[in-house]
């Protein structure tokens, strides 16, 4: 489903946006009032320019100090692998972008991320996964890396990883596995204007809950990360 079609289903009232250099910026009117739209499209390769532009857009919204909700649109193939971006310290730029999203949250702006296409690696981690809530389309492709790349990095044989991915969500790409791990709050199969409104309204009633990361407990409940919470608690109490 094309970006235009998805956005028009989610925001049928006074939707206004522009797409340039694989980035989307706009706004829409909802029953909750105005929401700002910031993000990436067309499987963007996240580089210095995109990351800094997104960060500046977020800071501009914060500067207005009116707690306007932000909807992050996520469609990224991950970080740009060019040598130039690595030499310019892309990891620190991603950290800056993540810090801007964290500041937005702490300033009381309701916010959520919607994965329209791909959500891969650092491109997803730097802003989409930082949002209060993450929602994904059924057709989305969510992953850190594919099993071939994981095999090269971990030195675990590919056949072993394929076997592990059948029973453990942490070794398997796919939106259902990231839902099991607590990284995705819900998978949207049908779209309407109430999805975003309901999520933002729910956030407004208990914003303080989002200052605590409960994803490891969610992952335990969904049986996506069976040992994570136990290990963390053991470390904290050691």
Q: What would the keywords be for this entry?
A:
alpha/beta; nine-stranded mixed beta sheet; globular; 43% helix; 238 residues; 2-enoyl-CoA Hydratase, Chain A, domain 1
Characterize the structure shown.
The structure is a single chain. With 238 residues, the protein is an alpha/beta fold. The chain has eleven helices and nine strands. Strands 1, 2, 3, 4, 5, 6, 7, 8 and 9 form a nine-stranded mixed β-sheet that branches. The chain has a single domain, classed as 2-enoyl-CoA Hydratase, Chain A, domain 1 (Alpha-Beta Complex), CATH 3.90.226.10.
**H/E order of the elements?**
HEEEEHEHHEHEEHHHEHHH
Secondary structure: helix percent: 40-55%
- What gap, in angstroms, lies between the N and C termini? 49 Å
Low-confidence stretches: none
Radius of gyration: 18 Å
Number of strands: 9
Number of distinct helices: 11
Looking at CATH, which topology would you report?
2-enoyl-CoA Hydratase, Chain A, domain 1
The CATH class: Alpha Beta
Structural class: alpha/beta
The CATH homologous superfamily: 2-enoyl-CoA Hydratase, Chain A, domain 1
Q: Note the overall shape.
A: globular
Summed over residues and divided by their number, the pLDDT gives a mean of 92
Integer tally of domains: 1
Largest sheet: 9 strands, mixed
Oligomer: single chain
User: What is the CATH-assigned architecture?
Assistant: Alpha-Beta Complex
Strand content: 15-25%
């Amino acid at each position: 489903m094309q970006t235009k079609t998805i956005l028009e289903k989610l925001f049928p009232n006074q939707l206004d946006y522009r797409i340039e250099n694989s980035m989307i910026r706009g706004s829409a009117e909802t029953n909750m009032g105005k929401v700002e739209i910031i993000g990436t499209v067309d499987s963007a390769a996240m580089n210095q320019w995109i990351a800094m532009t997104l960060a500046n857009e977020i800071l501009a919204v914060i500067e207005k100090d009116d707690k306007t909700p932000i909807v992050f649109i996520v469609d990224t193939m991950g970080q740009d692998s060019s040598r130039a971006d690595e030499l310019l310290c892309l990891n620190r730029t991603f950290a800056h972008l993540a810090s801007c999203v964290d500041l937005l949250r702490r300033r009381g702006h309701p916010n959520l991320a919607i994965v329209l296409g791909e959500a891969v690696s650092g491109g997803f981690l730097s802003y989409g996964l930082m949002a209060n809530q993450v929602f994904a389309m059924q057709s989305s492709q969510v992953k850190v890396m594919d099993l071939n790349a994981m095999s090269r990095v971990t030195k675990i044989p590919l056949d072993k990883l394929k076997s592990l991915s059948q029973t453990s969500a942490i070794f398997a790409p796919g939106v259902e596995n990231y839902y099991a791990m607590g990284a995705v709050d819900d998978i949207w199969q049908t779209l309407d204007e109430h999805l975003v409104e309901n999520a933002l309204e729910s956030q407004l009633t208990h914003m303080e809950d989002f200052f605590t990361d409960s994803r490891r407990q969610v992952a335990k409940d969904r049986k996506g990360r069976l040992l994570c919470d136990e290990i963390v608690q053991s470390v904290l109490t050691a």
